[in-house]
C-alpha cells in the first residue's frame, strides 16, 4: 500500500486520522504539526528513511499523509487535495471550532477508502490528472507545486533530540504485493476460463459438423432422401 497513514488537523488539533498498518507515524505527524513554521498556505514534504510525509495546508486546515517514497509526489498530493475537498464539503465551517477527533468516527472511513483507492487503483492517477473532481485551474496549481516542492529531511523540522524513529510494520509491503498478486491471478483465471469456453464451443461445433456430414453421406449412399 503506497499511502500508509493520513490525518486532517486544524493547527495541531487532529480532527480525524487513519493508519493502514502498525506504525508510530501518528506521533511523528504530531511533531510535524507542532513544528511547521508559519500559518500560511503551504505544500511541503519531509523524508524519513524510505517514507515521506506530505503536508498540504490550506485556509488553516492541514491534511497530511505518510507514503512510501516509491509513490512519488503526484499521487500523494492528489490524495491530499481530494481529502481536503471532501472534508471541507462535508463539514464546512464546523471544522473551525471542532474539538480533537470530533470528525474521526465518520471521516476516518473516508480516509481509509481513499487511501486504498489511491494506493491500489491504477486509474487514480489518470483520473486525478485528467477528469477528477478538481477544476482545471486546481489541476494546474497541483502540477505546479508538485514540481516545485522541495523534499526536506525531517531533521530540518524536528530537533534531533525530539525526533522519533519511524517504525513501520514491514508486512504492509507484503499486503500490497499480495493484493497485486491476487488481482493478477484472478485476471489470469478469467482469461484461461474464457479460452477454455471458446475452445469447448469450437470443438462442439466441429463435432456437430462432422456428424452432419457423416449422416448426409450415409443417407445419400443408401438413397434415403427422407433422412435428409
UniProtKB/TrEMBL annotation:
GO terms for cellular component: vacuolar membrane. Involved in the targeting and/or fusion of transport vesicles to their target membrane. It is a single-pass type IV membrane protein. Residues 1-16 form the signal peptide. This is Longin domain. Keywords: Coiled coil, Membrane, Protein transport, Signal, Transmembrane, Transmembrane helix, Transport. One of its GO terms (biological process) is vesicle-mediated transport. It is found in: Prevacuolar compartment membrane; Vacuole membrane. Coiled coil: none annotated. Pfam families: Longin, Synaptobrevin. Residues 135-195 form the V-SNARE coiled-coil homology domain. Belongs to the synaptobrevin family. Residues 7-111 form the Longin domain. It comes from Dillenia turbinata. InterPro entries: Longin-like_dom_sf, Longin_dom, Synaptobrevin-like, Synaptobrevin-like_transport, V_SNARE_CC. The chain crosses the membrane at residues 199-223. PROSITE patterns: LONGIN, V_SNARE.
